[in-house]
Amino acid sequence: MTEVDDHQASLTLADAITALNADLSLSAVLDTLVESARLLTDAHYAALHVFDAQGESVAFLTKGIPDDAKDRIGHPPGRVGVLAKIPAHGTLAVENIDADPDHRGMPRWHPRLESFLGTSLTVREQVFGHLYLADKKGGPFDDEDKRMILALAAAAAVAIDHAKLHDDAVERQRWLEASQRLTTQMLTTQDEEAALQGIVDAARILAHAPTAALVLPGVDDAWVIEMAAGDYASNIIGLELPDQGSAMDVIRTSTGIVAPEPPGRHVLHEITEYGPSLYAPLASDGETIGLLMLWRDKGDHEFSAADLEVTQRFAHQAALALTLSELNQARSHAALLEEREQIADDLHDFVSQELFAAAMHLEALGEDASDAQSARLASAADHVKRAQYEVRGVMRNLAGQRSSEPASDRMRREITLAQATLGFVVDTEAAWADLDRVCTIDATLADDAIAVMRELLSNVARHAKASAVKLWVRLEGDRLELGVEDNGIGPAGATKRYSGTSNLGNRAIRRDGSFSLEPVNAGATMPGSRATWNVQVKR
User: Fold this and answer.
1) How many CB atoms lie within 10 A of CB 63?
2) What is the pLDDT of residues 387-417, one digit of tens each?
3) pLDDT score at 9
4) How far apart are alpha carbons 368 and 230 in whole angstroms?
5) Burial letters for 379-404: b for 16+ Cβ neighbours within 10 Å, e otherwise?
């Protein structure tokens, strides 16, 4: 090659290297690399085969091969035959592929190749991929082609590293923005389900994972898949994590993991259908309050350490948001109680007293009036007294813990409200007198019982798709049992959340009791649900 030709080639190589750094997108860098390599060597065909950390194929880019031929060929070539001889450093040049003793043949629709040049693309001491060039115009690839390809590969390695760093930064920014949106949503929404579902949906999209799930603490130290989204989500909602499984290890240690498949020897059967897995704990102040589980399909590329790092950051932010949301709701609840007490006091100090004075005044006027006027004044006084009685009822309801309203009346009111949402009448069998008696002995029991019944009926209305509900309140010995049974889709039938029954179990545990949720007719199309809350009471 003459000095002029060498200078011209160097300029072309310089232009190619400049083009590699013109765009920070990894896909653009790889596309530029393949096309530049083809033009620099005057090759008819060029391809780049990209591998993951385990050496598995993750991408295959080509130039020069018609699209219809690519579609017919299908999958990329394996690292066998001539391709298996490409060194980690340097190049492999073959004058005639057909004559090479290691040649294994070509797919039916593959263009016929003669000369070949291959080299490895190494990024940070790891083989990123193989660059293939074939059918140089005018003869086999020469030493100058090898020199330019090695120089281009070295420059491409730097450009690829920069592009990956840029992509990582963009990915971290996406996770950060999602965390900020999630925090805002949790601190402003009153819909707990929507907030929890937001964690699952955001993680699934950001991690490019077909399936995601959120695990929360349940009854008796169990950890339950409460929310899920994606492929086969309905099959895993409501499942309890095996105590000896790897997911429980993540919960106990607050340390996330990635694996090529669901890890550990104790894996739920439904989860074995998934491939690459990532488990990230939702940890706050050293305590795990949830677990985010992400899965890709079998054969998909694995989660990386960088994926785990950004996901754990997101999970930590979600845990903080959940904690702040709970504190915010507690403060709002306390403020609401304080406001209700203030209203009750105002009703007592002003409205009730004024009504009482008005009734007394009307009765006094009636004593001096004629019989006809006295009857009318007495009727008016009765109306005022009834209004005063209603105001006192409102005062008792607003006062909450100061209320002397029987627990049975409060529960009947909850059932009436639930029926309006359900759209049908609840079949009720209740020992109301027994309930009132035990709640009189333990006033806090009424609050727990009302809250439990409200949650159970709310779950049916939101998730069960039921057309009938039975409710019972029973007292046997020193045990109070509240139960709700429906003919809906069953405990695991919800497509978004399991049941939200953690609080019910905690309320039972505090009273030396138990909570259970099970299908009525397991295996049926509409198995229904039976929820039972059983606690010890004071006699």
Assistant:
1) 18
2) 666 666 665 555 554 456 788 988 988 888 8
3) 44
4) 80
5) ebbeebbeebeebbeebeebbeeebe
